[in-house]
Write a structure and sequence with these properties.
Layout: H1 2-9, H2 23-31, E1 37-41, E2 51-64, H3 78-82, E3 86-89, H4 94-106, E4 112-116, H5 121-127, E5 133-136, H6 137-145, E6 149-152, E7 158-165, H7 172-190
Parallel strand pairs: 3-4
Antiparallel strand pairs: 1-7, 2-5, 2-6, 2-7
Helix pairs in contact: 1-7, 5-6
Length: 196
């Protein structure tokens, strides 16, 4: 919705979207000035190099291959999920870091079945039975519509999305984009949630 609103408000501006999954890559793109605004998974914390602002909190869901026998209302534990073969991003991505944190706390070893560069690719791999993934609500809904089994995690993990930018003035286009994101966040909060 933000990108659609931006295109309506600034039809002559070309919007370029980079899609790295790793938090540090997003930070570096913004720090270097290659991107003016970044969106990343983490808690907001200003630094001398970047300004941060929370824009959404989403729940993460277990996404399993079609036909996986899981109770209708059953929540999944991390061990349940890992038994299916985990499809996830490289170290430095949200889900991978969460799984490895859980494993350290439990004294277990994580075996990743498939490591990939794009979160969206995991939907296709799950649908053909290559393993299971952990995805935010919007992607989990897409996977469910395509036939995947989607279940909540027993210990819910919120995904906090932040917008970041370098201190100082932004270009008029980037400032417009930031205002549109803030308006969307305010609208979502007024509707009872900051997801999406």
């Amino acid at each position: 919705p933000v990108i659609s609103a931006f295109r309506t408000a600034a039809p002559g501006v070309t919007l370029t979207i980079a899609q790295p999954e790793e938090i540090e890559v997003v930070r570096e793109l913004v720090r270097s000035g290659e991107c003016e605004i970044g969106v990343l998974d983490q808690r907001a914390q200003d630094t001398d190099e970047l300004r941060m602002e929370v824009i959404a909190t989403q729940e993460l869901f277990a996404v399993l291959p079609p036909g996986t026998r899981v109770g209708r209302n059953r929540t999944l534990t991390w061990p349940d999920l890992l038994a299916h073969g985990l499809i996830t991003g490289a170290r430095g991505t949200l889900v991978r870091d969460l799984v490895e944190q859980w494993a350290r706390e439990e004294g277990r070893e994580v075996r990743v079945a498939i490591e990939l560069g794009r979160r969206e690719t995991s939907i296709h791999l799950v649908l053909v039975g290559a393993g299971a993934a952990v995805l935010p609500a919007s992607l989990a809904q897409t996977a469910a519509a395509l036939g995947a089994e989607v279940r909540p995690l027993r210990h819910p993990v919120p995904r906090t999305l932040c917008m970041c930018w370098r201190p100082g003035p932004l270009s008029p286009a980037a400032e417009l984009f930031r205002r549109l994101v803030r308006a969307r966040v305010a609208t979502a909060a007024g509707a009872g949630g900051a997801g999406g």
